[in-house]
Amino acid sequence: MPNNEGDLFCAGSTWTPEGKLLVAGGTAIYGSGGQGWGGGELIYLFDPLLPLPQAWVLQDERMLRPRWYPTLTMLGDAQDRVLSFGGLSLGLTDVKNTYEEYTVKIDASTGLAQSDSVSVSPVLYDGPDPPPGSFGNDHWLGLYPRTNLLSNGEVFLSGYTQDSASLEHVTGVSDSDWNHDDTAEVRRHGGGSVLFPNFAGYEDVIMAIGGRNNAGTTNVVTDSVQWARISGASPSAWIWNDSWPDLGQARWRANTTLLPDGSVLVVGGNTVPGNETTEVPTTTSERFYLDAQGVGHWQSNLPAPNGPRTYHSAAVLLPSGKVFIAGGNSRDWDYQVYVPGYLTSGLEQPVLTNVPGVINYGANQVVQISHLDMASTDVERIVLMRPASVTHHNDYDQRYVELDVLSATDTSITVAAPLDANHAPRGYYMVFAVSAQGTPSEAGWTLLR
Q1: pTM for this one?
Q2: How would you write the chain as a 3-class SS string?
């Protein structure tokens, strides 16, 4: 980084509408020699189409506060704003229970950036007050607060504690409107949180998976799985539901990845509390899915990786439908590719022959497919999936958007695009055709705007 100002390790990131990765925060001071970790305040845009080092553009403006472990969330409003939540500044007790706002300048007629620049709002916004009777670092916006954009434009925070909140962000005021709830089953330090796929009536459902339950004198790794339907709930009215089965293996610091068949893959993680020197990793992978009756199940007889994937590892969905799994504290330099069962079942994949280069909100779009005259390739779903932006075993930006099918022929499917950017933020998406048996095609790419 310029002037020895740290690096992007422990930063937050999200994809912008023109297909660049916005990266903010990171590590300016490493926790050694008796000093705490210090957050960075630099902002970068990364263009994957340019060679290095030109791909990285340092922004003139800086974050309002240094942030170590922040979460970035793209909003669905016309200004294409990004909110940067939480993180630490210096030391593990210097929690920034605040968030700030950035705007990426976009040409509305093309959906492309006018320049490689990000502007920073001068207003610093408050997070929710710590819950009554809270202890230690029980701030809402602490280490990588789990935030997701909902279809009503609100942002939902699941976080590390048993407390969750939804936010109606109001521009230009320091105290936005937060709704609170404290009914989650356990604390989930280092747990997983995903916006569940939007099929079968599950829009705006948050799924919370595993984690370390360190409430009071308790310090155990949990197998707990809960879900809550958020959008449309009155303040503090969402309910954390226990109807889905728990994990087969309790774990924290595991990767949770959405797959194009609508299932959730859980890979790696640690089975005991403690730091990196005392970890007991698991090589068991699990896949959550809903059956035809809407009942949840975990599949645990998945192929085992050739070694542990622990803290700081990553799992990334590829356009092929495979999953790239890499890194981790115990193995920095290698990777494997996981091939899900939908690609080894013997069923032939659907084939996309033409995907619209641009999909407009609210419009009907035709997706061309190859008709192979086989029941196994009858396409049932067209799915948009946001490209990966993974750090510290979580991707808070991942999104599975099933499009409504309006009509179909042997060689084409007409679908309805999302109504607006709250349902799916502007930007590039992978497009999958999925058969009635759950077998996905290889993905095409489209720009949603």
Answers
A1: 0.93
A2: CHHHCCEEEEEEEEECCCCCEEEEEEEEECCCCCCCCEEECCEEEECCCCCCCCCEEECCCCCCCCEECCEEEECCCCCCEEEEECCECECCCCECCEEEEEEEEEECCCCEEEEEEEEECCCCEECCCCCCCCCCCCCCCCCCCCEEECCCCCEEECCCCCCEEEEECCCCCCCCEEEEECCCCCCCECCEEEECCCCCCCCCEEEEECCEECCCCCCEECCCEEEEECCCCCCCCCCCECCCCCCCCCCECCEEEECCCCCEEEECCECCCCCHHHCCECCCCEEEEECCCCCEEEECCCCCCCCCCCCCEEEEECCCCCEEEEECCCCCCCEEEECCHHHCCCCCCCCEEECCCEECCCCEEEEEECCCCCHHHCEEEEEEECCCCCECCECCCCCEEEEEEEEECCCEEEEECCCCCCCCCCEEEEEEEEECCCCECCCEEEEEC
